[in-house]
Design goal:
Number of helices: 12
CATH class of the largest domain: Alpha Beta
CATH architecture of the largest domain: 3-Layer(aba) Sandwich
Structural class: alpha+beta
Strand order of the largest sheet: 24-25-27-26-28-29-30-31
CATH topology of the largest domain: Rossmann fold
CATH superfamily of the largest domain: Alpha/Beta hydrolase fold, catalytic domain
Number of domains: 3
Oligomer: single chain
Distance between the termini: 53 Å
Amino acid sequence: LYRVDPGGEPTAISPEPSVARGFRWGEPTWLDDRWLVCVRESHEPHVVDSHGEAMNELVAIPVDGSAAADPSLVRTLVSGPDFVHSPALRGDQLAWVQWDHPRMPWDGTELMLATIDRDGAGQPVGVDEVRLVAGGAEESVIQPGFTAAGDLVFCTDRTGWWNPWRLPADNASGGGIEAVIAEGGVEAEIGGALWVGGLRWWAEAPDGALITSFTHDGADGLARIGVDGQLVELATPFTEVGQVVNGTDGRVLVVAGTPVAEGAPYAVDVTQPTEDELDDPNAVRSGDAETATVVLDRLRPARDLGIGTEWFSHPTSVSFRSADGRAAHALHYPPLNAEVEGPDGEQPPLVVMIHGGPTSAARNRLDLAKQFWTSRGFAVVDVNYGASTGYGRPYRNLLQDAWGVVDVEDAVAAARYLAGEQLVDGDRLAIRGGSAGGYTTLAALCFHDVFRAGASHYGVADLAALATETHKFESRYLDGLVGPWPEAEATYAARSPIHHTDGFSAPLIVLQGSEDEVVPPNQAEMIVDALAAKAIPHAYLLFEGEQHGFRQAANIIRALEAELWFYGRVFGFDPADSIEPVEGAVGL
């Protein structure tokens, strides 16, 4: 951790670890003008040896830099849970979220509230009066924060949907919690999967109302929840909202995007605008929501993509029946090219996209990777298979003990649905995904015969390796998705494509990083060897220096173009792009 004074140089305020990255710090928040409270994850050898893994704690650290020389000045406040997260402070009141293995934070967390103890010199030394506010094994509580009136507000999915609730300030000594939204809430997600620190879905307006993001039917929006509990959707162009935080001058800051504009920071003013604001050329006036006029001030100019919006395909949210008649969801992008149209009477080929996570989601936003395919004549369907966030807790729980089953069923059902609706060519169906999405891709090709081609980007082929060789946060993730390891070893083997390579029959392109430690290259090479043994057309590209997820622009471009070349060979067309063939491709 570093402190930077205005005009000064960074000064370390945290002690030097004994090994590289031995201390990892997150979510710092001010306790007072002398101390910060933050999460510390210790990877110090003696800690890992005694606990069997890294140790997460809430600590207080002085901002004057004294702890850099004297590590004892870092004061432990909360220790014991496997994970501590999201510290929030009001005076000496400290709220935080915690959970233990094998739960993930979208499975179940506890919201705790305590008072910080101080010694005679006023230095924090621990916590007292610790109480459980909400949460448990079957309730996910996220983003605690205090309002100006002293209420502790948080998002919980106790109703089946993440919605804001609160512990009123006058009940902090032992009273109950209550819903912020009238009539118990709404069937929309005001919250999300807690993959990283610092995620924010609500902020307080000057009048005490909450400005929140929400997700419904595959798209995001902004809403205002008045002090009377009434929720009003704000009329904005946004279809994706990533962050909602308090700004200055009573405004709320958001990071948001649309189907034709990349995500960018905006200041949102939901009060009556001044004449200067109305005359501001950067302001976007987006209509009235009851008595609140929404003024959006874009804080950073849009990146010049060099592409007109007439090139961008807009998605439609679709729902369809998957296995056992249950509902599944996706975003369908029709092909669109501003200069050419597809042949009359011919339906386009389809690329089925599988998001990672698997507890992530496809969102209605400008994604140039999708537009790459739609501008070249492909339809795209981005599948929000069971486990995707944005559709409530029961939908998110569909993948419990069912990874490699439900996600694959939903991907297959999405392709069949679009073919049945005559929106795509049922004989030219491809599936692609990376990491967890790559696992679903491989499983769909291994255990089903619906797809004519596939592309695995650093896809998981061996679930057992993933369960035993990962970092602390995900180290027990597969307990819920597949089963406890090693007790469920047979299930891991049954669902791992690497053990069922005889099931492959469709052409496959495999794209892999040479330094990937999550999915080592040997997994990709075993799949490629199996394809070669069965004389199945395939291509393999190993990118030197890349890890789990490609980061070099040249490699990202090459991977996309190689995949397009591959589909051209399989589906029998010549891409308009000038693309170097994949060296060593077999049967193409």
